[in-house]
């Protein structure tokens, strides 16, 4: 019985990158069919003197790039989960602003209203 070939990610060997299954179907065909994980584009502005506090965890929340500005750093994310991102954002919300998406702003507002109700 023929087993399909398996290819590891990140291999640059041309003979490996052109592998196919035993019946000749290129592995790229199956990779194209695989569902892609959802990512949510998020943009935030962080006070320039505070941005260093996010360095340790930003990659866990889909960090893509940052753009230094005059008084802030604009940070771009492809967040795998807005729920988790909103919880992380709360930890530094006093020195940051959500630029987009508005759905994250709404989620954060609901979360903070629920916390306010709980502590009132």
Order of helices and strands: HHEEEHEH
Number of helices: 4
Structural class: alpha+beta
Radius of gyration: 21 Å
Biggest sheet character: 4 strands, antiparallel
Could you give the count of β-strands?
Answer: 4
Helix % is 25-40%
Mean pLDDT: 84
CATH architecture of the domain at 40-119: 2-Layer Sandwich
Q: What oligomerization state is this entry in? A: single chain
Low-confidence parts lasting 5 or more residues at pLDDT below 50? Answer: 1-16
Short key terms for the protein model shown above:
120 residues, alpha+beta, Alpha-Beta Plaits, 4-stranded antiparallel beta sheet, 4 helices, 32% helix, elongated, disordered N terminus
How would you sum up this structure, described in words?
It is a single chain. The chain is an alpha+beta fold and 120 residues long. It has a domain of 80 residues: Alpha-Beta Plaits (2-Layer Sandwich). Helices cover 32% and strands 22% of the residues. It has 4 helices and 4 strands. Strands 2-3-1-4 form a 4-stranded antiparallel β-sheet. Strand 2 and strand 3 form a beta hairpin. Helix 3 packs across helix 4. It is elongated. The termini are far apart. The N terminus is likely disordered.
């Amino acid at each position: 019985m023929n087993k399909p070939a398996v290819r590891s990610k990140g291999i640059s060997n041309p003979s490996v990158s052109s592998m196919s299954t035993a019946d000749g179907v290129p592995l790229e065909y199956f990779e194209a069919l695989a569902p892609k994980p959802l990512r949510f584009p998020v943009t935030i502005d962080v006070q320039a003197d505070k941005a260093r506090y996010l360095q340790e965890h930003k990659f866990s929340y889909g960090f893509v790039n940052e753009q230094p500005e005059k008084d802030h750093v604009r940070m771009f994310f492809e967040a795998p989960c807005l729920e988790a991102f909103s919880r992380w954002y709360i930890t530094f919300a006093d020195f940051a602003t959500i630029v987009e998406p508005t759905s994250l702003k709404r989620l954060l507002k609901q979360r903070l209203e629920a916390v306010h109700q709980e502590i009132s």
